[in-house]
Structure formats: C-alpha cells, structure tokens
Amino acid sequence: MKRNLTLIMIILLPVILFAQNENAGTSGFTFLKVNYSARAAAMGNAYTGLSNDADAVFFNPAGLVQIDSPQASITYMSYLDGINCGSAAYVYPVDDKTSFAVFAKGLSATEDRTIADEMGQYAGIDGTFGMSDFIFGISVARYLIDMLDVGINAKFIQESLDDNSASAVVLDAGIMHQSTNENLKIGIALRNIGKQLTYHTDDEYEEVMPTTLTVGFNYHPQEKFYATADIYKPLDNDIFGRFGLEYQVHSMLALRAGYKTNASDWATGGENDFLSGISFGTGFDLNKYNLKMDYAIVSYGDLGFVNQISVKYLF
C-alpha cells in the first residue's frame, strides 16, 4: 500500500502540473505568491517537502505535525523597489498528532504621485500614494497514519491601492507523505483557492485567485544534510522548478543554497542576468537561548538583490 501510494503521487500529479493555462498571468491578488521565510528563500523556496518549522504555514501546512513544541517565527524582507514585507507565525502542537497555528503576513510601499499637463507631459509631483496587502490565517494539521499527514489553512486577505481596496477568503491544503524510502518525504500543496468578498471598483470586477499546485521532495540521507526540489505550477502560468540544499557544518551553523528555473522572468538583458534565480543563506542555532536566526539573499539579476531575515523562538 505504501509503495502504491508513493507511485500514484509521483506519476499522476505531474500530469496535472504540466497542464498549460490559456490565461497565463491574469490572476489578481498576486502578492499571495510571495512567501517570507529566510530559510526557505535561501533554499530556492523548495520547501513543500520539508516544511518542518513554523514557516510551514506559508508552504505546506501538513508539515506542522513535525513540530513537537510551541514555536514562533517572524520574518522581515526588503523586497524590490522599496517594498517592505513581513510575516509572523505561531504554532502550538496539541499532541503528537495535531497542531494548530495562527499567522499573518503583509507588505507595503509608498510612491510619489506624478501629474501630467493637458499635453500629457510630466508636470510634477502631487503628494504620494501607497499600496498595502495583509493576510491573516489559521492552520490545523493532523497525523493520519505513519505515512501521511494532512493540513489546511484558512486565510482572510485585504489588498489596498491608494483609496481603493478589495478582500477575499482563500484556503490552502497540503499533505506530507513518508515514502517507503525512510530518507525521502513527498509534500503536496494546493494553495490559494478562494472567493473575492469586496472589490476595488464599483463595477465589482472579480479577480482570479493565483492558485498554485506544488509537489515537493525532501531527501534527508543524514542528520546534517537536506536536498529539496519542488515542481511548482501556478494555474495561471507555466511550470517551473525550485531546488535547495542545506548542510549543517556545525551545531550552531548551517549553510544553504538554492535555484529557481524561472530566472528568465527577471531577465532585462543586463550583464547580471546570469545571477537570476540564485539564492544563498545561513542559519544560526542558538540553543542556549532557544533561538534560531536565518538569513537569505536572493538574486533577481540586474533588478537587484532581496534580503530576508527570520528569527524563531522555541518555547
């Protein structure tokens, strides 16, 4: 039975993932695609099959079952074009079979408001306008059998652009499967399935949710080493891959690296395009203080670098 389930997950799900969508790039609430976790970012966000800390709420909620004590995590990300992002999560394991979590994440930015004259020419600046997005969510994860954990998120979203705003409710669902190979776990996450509640304009134009389906693999042959890979399929865009490595070089220090195959999305024709999609990072385990600190730097080629820092506290 275990072998059969593993084969079904590996063979059938990629068929769905490789399906192409004619409406590529047309979804709204696109900030839902951006997740914050310095550890995951350093590993190319190939985290669906790993997800063994509080940041699992952003990748695969089924992974929360792996957490055996209460844990809190906060992350700050300095994104492109002066956009500031942050997240917070708290996980409470009820017992060895059930975990609950609450989480929030958001982003904000402010730009100068430019004005034009009757000829359409630049006529100066008239104050500023801003954008902001906020998510609040709750999670529950449950052990089913030795080979399978499941999890679900329920999220409320508020998106604002200047004086206009919209809101929605969405769900995420995930499973974590222990394969017949004790060193290999397979995670599957279907994220951002939902319904818009309020609209940016009076004509009530409804945005399409940026639903994604991901199959992730976590290979853990020894205590110090993780190798991860995600097959990532936004339903409004093309399939791509994510890959990550983590090695614990010391009890207090981990080194990480990752890569995303959709690097061409950020290509501008500049001399730094070859760096697009590459990520690196470190993790510091301060057991004496029950703290973990992670840092990641992600390259977007000539567009620049994105930095993330996360702090976790283990109660």
Write the layout of secondary structure elements.
Blueprint: H1 2-17, H2 38-42, E1 71-78, E2 84-93, E3 98-116, E4 122-145, E5 148-161, E6 164-178, E7 184-198, E8 212-222, E9 225-234, E10 240-250, E11 253-260, E12 278-286, E13 291-299, E14 305-314
Antiparallel strand pairs: 1-2, 1-14, 2-3, 3-4, 4-5, 5-6, 6-7, 7-8, 8-9, 9-10, 10-11, 11-12, 12-13, 13-14
In short:
The protein is mostly beta strands. The protein has helices spanning 2-17, 38-42; strands at residues 71-78, 84-93, 98-116, 122-145, 148-161, 164-178, 184-198, 212-222, 225-234, 240-250, 253-260, 278-286, 291-299, 305-314.
The chain-level structural class is mainly beta
**Tally of separate domains:** 1
Overall body shape = globular
CATH fold group: Porin
Rg (C-alpha, Å): 20 Å
The portion of residues forming beta strands comes to: over 45%
Distance between the termini: 38 Å
In CATH, what is the homologous superfamily? Outer membrane protein transport protein (OMPP1/FadL/TodX)
| CATH architecture descriptor text | Beta Barrel
- Listing every helix as H and every strand as E from the N terminus to the C terminus, the arrangement reads HHEEEEEEEEEEEEEE
Largest sheet, order of strands side by side? 1-2-3-4-5-6-7-8-9-10-11-12-13-14
Unreliable stretches (pLDDT < 50, length at least 5) are 1-25
Instruction: Report helical residue fraction.
Output: under 10%
The total count of strands amounts to 14
CATH class: Mainly Beta
